[in-house]
Specification:
about 450 residues; alpha+beta; Helix Hairpins; Heat Shock Protein 90; 3 domains; five-stranded mixed β-sheet; four-stranded antiparallel β-sheet; 10 helices; EC 2.7.13.3; kinase; Sig_transdc_His_kin-like_C
């Protein structure tokens, strides 16, 4: 009996199982803890960003009366359990979806009748204006919910980890096959463009598979870092230069107003301001593309009618087309064409395609159509089109055809459409319309 127990304790499967139990438990606790801290920090940063954005949007009001009206309108449509908006005037009058008291920079909130506050607490910002205090508060409910989720996940993960680890002791013969499958899945994900895919190997000093896996992870990490760095450079440049350019534009517009109308300097100032506006638009588009590619824009989670959205966009652009002497038409099905997406982003993609067709499509008609069976939206023109060898290039940022360099635009319209299509898992195709260009976005089936 003692000899059998000793042999069992020296067996490789049992030792490996015990090692895996210890390793998985440690890694699980460490990973969950690290992920929780990272997500909590990100959530709090997002709440703070929302506060700053809301304050900035409300602070645009020119007068106290306008600000009070704006706060009142937004407050009526906002649940105070999620967000509190209050304007506390120096005259003691308040407008908002709660009551606020400001003392030495500290804000205290009290509920209004029939409009209870949330129980999770708030992240609060108060801005002193010339006519009073503007108070905005974001509920910390997402942070609290995140903590509860991770606590439950931490508690429930140990038991499955233990069971799975023990089960691995009886499945050791299949270990090599699983490792090979993991490498294949990683390679497939990398080939599909998912540069975050990893095999998970942290030590390449083991057998051949461990060394191959570790080298694959290092290669993928270098490629992901290079891609992220390139993307971050354009984002940082756009972010850092947009504000100075906006100030330059304001100064140039002021100079334009102060210059006599018949002076050559006025025309120069006007051209300079227009160029500054164009640069701002470029930076704004670059930042939006970066946010979409980084997953910071709205997630495609709503079911919407692609045909109805296309009809709305055609109706919106018809007056502009008519004023330019162009014809904008539509070929849309009568039945709904349902896709999963974020309405604002898909609407912007359609708008960019229509604007691009109206700008570069010549005098021929521009047609917006939706294929119900393929769940595809197309915008076609009868202009000069795009050569086949340049159709992939025009989807890159700031790339422009040689003939288009003298026309308005900044070479980001199609790049933004490509980013939106990728965000929605849609297939973007540029093809010859004989004559002209046809751009098609084919959406996957709705969830």
């Amino acid at each position: 009996m003692q000899r059998a127990l000793s042999r069992l304790l020296r067996s490789a499967p049992l030792r490996l199982t015990l090692l895996l139990v210890t390793l998985f438990t440690t890694v699980n606790a460490f990973t969950l803890g690290t992920a929780y801290l990272a997500l909590k920090s990100r959530e709090e940063a997002a709440l703070q960003a929302d506060l700053e954005a809301e304050l900035g949007g409300l602070d645009l009001a020119a007068t106290p009366a306008a600000l009070r009206t704006l706060v009142s309108v937004r407050a009526r449509a906002t649940d105070p359990a999620d967000r509190v908006l209050v304007f506390l005037g120096d005259d003691g009058r308040q407008a908002g979806n709660a009551r606020a008291r400001v003392s030495q920079g500290q804000v205290a909130l009290d509920p209004l009748p029939d409009r209870p506050l949330g129980q999770a607490g708030y992240l609060t910002e108060a801005r002193r204006l010339s006519s009073g205090w503007l108070v905005v508060a974001e509920s910390r409910a997402p942070v609290r919910a995140l903590g509860r989720t991770f606590a439950a996940l931490l508690l429930l993960s140990f038991a499955p980890t233990l069971v799975l680890s023990l089960a691995l002791g009886t499945l050791i013969a299949r270990r090599t096959a699983r490792r090979v499958a993991r490498i294949e899945r990683t390679l497939d994900a990398l080939a599909q463009g998912d540069l975050s895919a990893r095999t998970g190997t942290t030590d390449g000093r083991g057998d051949d598979l461990a060394r191959i896996s570790a080298e694959l992870d290092r290669m993928a990490a270098r490629q992901e870092a290079a891609t992220d760095a390139l993307r971050q450079v354009s984002t940082d440049i756009a972010h850092d230069l947009r504000t100075p350019l906006q100030r330059i534009t304001v100064l140039l517009r002021a100079l334009e107003e102060e210059t006599p109308p018949d002076s050559p300097a006025r025309a120069t100032a006007e051209r300079a301001a227009d160029e500054a506006d164009r640069a701002i638009e470029i930076f704004r588009a670059l930042l939006q593309i970066a946010r979409i590619e980084g997953g910071q824009e709205g997630a495609p989670s709503d079911t919407l009618d692609l045909a109805a959205l296309a009809a709305d966009m055609v109706e919106l652009y018809e007056p502009a087309a008519e004023s330019a002497g162009l014809r904008l038409g539509a070929a849309l099905p009568e039945t709904p064409v349902l896709v999963t997406g974020e309405k604002r982003l898909i609407g912007q993609a359609i708008a960019n395609l229509i604007e691009n067709a109206l700008r570069h499509g010549g005098a021929g008609p521009v047609t917006v159509s939706v294929d119900a069976e393929a769940r595809a939206l197309s915008v076609a023109d009868h202009g000069p089109g795009i050569p086949e060898d340049e159709r992939e290039k025009v989807l890159q940022r700031l790339y422009r055809l040689e003939r288009s360099r003298t026309s308005p635009g900044h070479g980001l319209g199609l790049a933004l459409v490509a980013a939106i299509a990728q965000r929605h898992g849609a297939r973007l195709v540029l093809e010859d319309n004989a004559p002209g260009l046809r751009v098609t976005m084919g959406f996957p089936p709705p969830n």
